[in-house]
Amino acid sequence: MLLTSDARGVFPIAPTPFLDDGSIDTASIDRLTDFYLGCGATGITVLGQLGEAPKLEHAEAVAVAAQMIRRAPKLPVVVGVSAPGFAAMRALTRAVMDEGAAGVMIAPPNTLRTDDQIVGYYRQAVEAIGADVPFVLQDYPLTFSVQITPAVIRRIASELPSCAMLKHEDWPGLEKISALRAFERDGSMRHLAILCGNGGLFLDYEMERGADGANTGYCFPDMLCDVVRLSTEGRREEAHDLFDAHLPLLRYEQQPGVGLAVRKHVMMRRGLLTSAAQRKPAAALTPTARAEVEHLLKRLARHDRRAAL
Amino acid sequence: MLLTSDARGVFPIAPTPFLDDGSIDTASIDRLTDFYLGCGATGITVLGQLGEAPKLEHAEAVAVAAQMIRRAPKLPVVVGVSAPGFAAMRALTRAVMDEGAAGVMIAPPNTLRTDDQIVGYYRQAVEAIGADVPFVLQDYPLTFSVQITPAVIRRIASELPSCAMLKHEDWPGLEKISALRAFERDGSMRHLAILCGNGGLFLDYEMERGADGANTGYCFPDMLCDVVRLSTEGRREEAHDLFDAHLPLLRYEQQPGVGLAVRKHVMMRRGLLTSAAQRKPAAALTPTARAEVEHLLKRLARHDRRAAL
Amino acid sequence: MLLTSDARGVFPIAPTPFLDDGSIDTASIDRLTDFYLGCGATGITVLGQLGEAPKLEHAEAVAVAAQMIRRAPKLPVVVGVSAPGFAAMRALTRAVMDEGAAGVMIAPPNTLRTDDQIVGYYRQAVEAIGADVPFVLQDYPLTFSVQITPAVIRRIASELPSCAMLKHEDWPGLEKISALRAFERDGSMRHLAILCGNGGLFLDYEMERGADGANTGYCFPDMLCDVVRLSTEGRREEAHDLFDAHLPLLRYEQQPGVGLAVRKHVMMRRGLLTSAAQRKPAAALTPTARAEVEHLLKRLARHDRRAAL
Amino acid sequence: MLLTSDARGVFPIAPTPFLDDGSIDTASIDRLTDFYLGCGATGITVLGQLGEAPKLEHAEAVAVAAQMIRRAPKLPVVVGVSAPGFAAMRALTRAVMDEGAAGVMIAPPNTLRTDDQIVGYYRQAVEAIGADVPFVLQDYPLTFSVQITPAVIRRIASELPSCAMLKHEDWPGLEKISALRAFERDGSMRHLAILCGNGGLFLDYEMERGADGANTGYCFPDMLCDVVRLSTEGRREEAHDLFDAHLPLLRYEQQPGVGLAVRKHVMMRRGLLTSAAQRKPAAALTPTARAEVEHLLKRLARHDRRAAL
Can you spell out the DSSP letters for B237-280? Predict the structure, then answer.
């Protein structure tokens, strides 16, 4: 099953589970995958920015992706293949597509500046991985320092038919969604799936602007699924109520660096991960930070029973 | 009255009010100042990053600061004097100190990289403005791309006695506050006032980590004052309840670029500003964004009557 | 006399002369101006990147420009007015145009990224300074981190008739000159004067690619004038011979940071400046560096008698 | 044979030879290695910044390094292993050390800012590759945007005994060499081999400041060997004469982006490479640029017969 531009719903960004000794925790991979399936995810993204991909050897990366693909045969699994060179990108892409991946996600290297450089980079990437491999364009200026305008996204969509999805995480990005949907309405751009990242910080209004869903790794993917569903069903205030209840924790999790430690800690507390361990280099939670997370969970539990751990 | 390292409470970052024709709106300056006084602010910062300082001629900048100083004679008024060169920084500093400013705020130019460059820059700045002028060190890596470690802040505090306050807006920054307060406890660093910016996004826990207050421009400075007061009084859950109620709007306002338009729009709706006008260049609110702000206000009003406009 | 797109020849970037006590050295301003006139310069640029503009108060900056303008009434004098905000840019532009400047030079702020941001910035700058003021587009990615493609330069030239000249200092930039001249030949772009900066490091081949001259501050502006003249007259090998003889020193002078100290030192040794003093902050020449410069001059003197000091 | 801090002389940065069809040109690898041996190189660095490493699959990279190691059993071969993650760095390091490499070269990722981040990165890298693997610290701010002060280099040398060499390519960097050698003289820092890169643009004076040699890929490595030898023997003016003769071409080759095309073109013209082909993405020489290179060679041949091709 290949990724198409009709994708919608929630593609959680899966963390890579490790045991305390740093080895890959295959039991948690299965448990996590089952949980995503159970809460209504419509796809999964592995080895993304917060999937600790650079800490995995090539064979390990392929194995992690392959296990998820096998465990969720009905879900499209997208694999992050961003790399400093096209040789490594191509090698990983081939390996995971052979394992049944639905597509790959590619972030721009942080040296790109001009519009032409950005379009040129994706053109070369497609040449490297093959035009038959659907890809997700990751647009995350805060992290990558690359600014991609709506017009440049339109150029990429037009030139490169294998671009299936935009992982939208510009900040602020609401007007970008509106601009892209306006392009679509005026006929100047084909439809791209737009799933939102950036930790979900603006998911509430992003949905109302025309996004198709979420593509982020917040420690309550079930909340993301609920908010996307409520918003899609037009139950606006319910969507906002649920989202707002999670916002204090979601904001806390979205801190650069330490965010992944928060995410893994909560997922461990929820029984999804055996351990919150990260491979080095990693930012750890101090005892104070851990107490803050517990405080946030306790406060959240007043509104969402799933946080009563 | 000069700024000292004992400062605490809330120093709102004042926007510069304009009329629709772009002229400075002196009536709103008075109204705004009175409002800050009325809601318990303990100081005011003008001509900060979101005070549109680069759009003011030198004489205008001095006039805006002077008017606030005269209107609030009992409050310390800090003036942003960041500039690409020390000549302009010195000229503005002298002018506003002559008008009675309590001190100045200096952000690092975004070309600084090494620890020594950062310390050297502040050393030169102090030489330029005079060692008798208290200054606020603005630490905002997200905007300035300059990363200042706790050890570098300690060096600056040690070398430069006129450094009175840290405008803390690192992100994530909770551990930085803890590190600085630990330095203070172990006797390796003198006390600096730490007031938090970054839109207030982590004010709730920043207070608990040892911050002395807030130094940001959120459109409800009265909420900032209340949260700082509740937190200081140990009324922890009340502080969080109030903060969390505002978080959806606060997050919305903290978007780079468009954030100031949100802030000025709400302040106009609250009757604090005659107009939400900015001088060019400025990001404007689209009708959709304006509707989103109204939606946020309406939802907020269920928890805080001040948002019922 | 206003700058036009027919400009050609050499516009030296004038340093700002200071006495040892940091005051402006007006005698050297006259001497320097006379020297430029004498060696065949066709214009002068003051208060550029290496003119220490940020260290001058507004009134000083205007005075320096005005003195040069009065001293060289037949030469167009271009004034650097780059500033973090349009208010300061407009104020300085008005003041120097009133004094008889031929135009202004504007560098892009280092936060610009996308093509549209760059075009938009110059559009706003022109709105601020007035469409009747000729301006030089400074294209120096190494220093400003802003990359402007030939197509973007064409857009600016097309949208903004007051853009008269490109200060070309991209690196590598030979193909950019060729691309712009090709646009001109195919009729898609009007003629812009292209004068080359980047310390003159590629002036030899830049002339052959279609540049109109040099716009840089090398300590032997007389050599720049000679090379441009020889190249224009088709005396190719003579141009290269002279250029190559200077290349070791020219390269040494082009070091970021310390380069200006080299330049002022040699100009002092040549009797053009009373002192090599810079205002703070400044990188000084160590004794070893000074000895290296003397060594370079001595070696150069074997080929160019003007270096026998 | 392992790299030690006593290394000196010239370690050419080897390009990776490709045939026109993009396959690795093993015949040229041997020819190139023999040439390096013949002209007096004291080591070789492969898969560096200009070795097109990101375009090689893992197995190809290992094979290229292994072939050079076998062909030059008496020369230490250093292998570039810079990677976005420590897993890939470790995998490549282990593979090439097993093949007999003398050590590895590690560049800092361009996200590092503070002194502590830089030291911490190298600490983690050593942990990843093993403390028994000698490494070269690559200090190239122009390309990597990471600024490493002499004091930070001293910290790294002190903390990490496996740091054997500094590939010095700061710009300007003459004072950095002097500062490091002063540390050594005052006993605060152990000896590190300092070999200079940055295209060799300042090799003449770098040798006089105390550098131990060159570590760059200029298309005339024989000139680098001669200059280093002449300088070491105290034949100062001869060293400068030879260097200056090459400077016009050396400067031309050092253009970012297109420089590698120049280098490979000249090496092909010299019979060292079968083809000047690069794998994609690559900047190609235009016909005009190629003619400029031929012109430079012809002019150079008047001074150095090796350029008469």
Answer: HHHHHHHHHHHHHHHHHTSTTTHHHHHHHHHHHTTS-S----PS
pLDDT tens by residue, B202-249: 999 999 999 999 999 999 999 999 999 999 999 999 999 999 999 999
| Cβ(C219)–Cβ(C252) below 8 Å | no
The residue assigned the tokens 């800490």 is: A55
Tell me if the pTM is above 0.90: yes
Q: Does A113 touch chain C (CB under 8 A)?
A: yes
Widest CA span in chain C? 55
Whether cis (ω within 30° of 0) applies to the bond prior to A73 is no
Sign of CA dihedral C128, C130, C135, C139: positive
User: Which of C55, C124, C126 should be substituted to probe chain B, the one whose Cβ sees the most B Cβ atoms within 10 Å?
Assistant: C55
C69 touches C45 (CB < 8 A): no
**Crossing angle for the helix pair D115-129 and D150-159, to the nearest 10 degrees:** 30
For residues B85 and B88, what is the distance between their CA atoms, to the nearest angstrom?
Answer: 6
Note the Cα C47 to chain centre separation in Å.
9
On the question of pLDDT at A172 being above 80, the answer is no
Backbone φ and ψ for C44, nearest 5 degrees, come out as: -140, 140
Give CA–CA dist C235/C223, Å, rounded. 15
For the CA atoms of B242, B248, B249, B253, what is the dihedral angle to 10 degrees? 120
What part of C 115-134 touches A (C-beta under 8 Å)? 115-117
Taking the alpha carbons at both ends of chain B, their separation in whole angstroms is 36
Q: From start to end of B103-218, where are the E strands?
A: 103-106, 135-139, 163-168, 193-196, 213-214
Q: How far apart are CA B28 and CA B68, in angstroms?
A: 11
For chain C, the first-to-last Cα distance in angstroms comes to 36
* Partners of D45 in the β-ladder: D13, D78
Which residues, including other chains, have CB under 8 Å from residue B62's CB and lie 6 or more apart?
Answer: B92, B95, B96, B99
User: Residue D115: which of B115, B145, B146 has the nearest Cβ?
Assistant: B115
The residue with tokens 């000159």 is: C177
Q: Are D289 and C175 inside 8 Å of each other by CB? A: yes
Query: Is A195 in contact with A166 (CB distance < 8 Å)?
Result: yes
C56: its two tokens: 């001058």
d(CA D124, CA D110): 16
How confident is the model over B154-197, as pLDDT tens digits?
999 999 999 999 999 988 799 999 999 999 999 999 999 999 99
pLDDT bracket for residue D279 (50, 70, 90): very high
Contact of B135 with B106, CB cutoff 8 Å: yes
What are A22-56's pLDDT values in tens digits?
A: 999 999 999 999 999 999 999 999 998 899 999 99
* A142: confidence class by pLDDT, cuts 50, 70, 90: confident
Q: What is the mean pLDDT of chain A?
A: 96
pLDDT in tens, D172-194: 799 999 999 999 999 999 999 99
Q: Do B55 and C85 touch (CB under 8 A)?
A: yes
The pLDDT tens digits of the residues spanning D58-93 come to 999 999 999 999 999 999 999 999 998 899 999 999
CA distance A70 to C59: 73
Residue B33 in tokens: 């100042």
Apex CA A125: angle with CA A120 and CA A128, to 5°? Answer: 130
Q: In sequence order, which residues have a C-beta less than 8 Å from that of residue A99 and are 6 or more positions away?
A: A62, A65, A66, A69
Chain D CB contacts of A280 below 8 Å: 86, 124, 127-128
pLDDT for position B179: 98
Could you give the ipTM of this predicted complex?
A: 0.97
Test C299 with D244 for CB contact under 8 angstroms: yes
Question: Residues D124-135: pLDDT tens digits?
Answer: 999 999 999 999
Model confidence pLDDT, tens digit, residues A121-131: 999 999 999 99
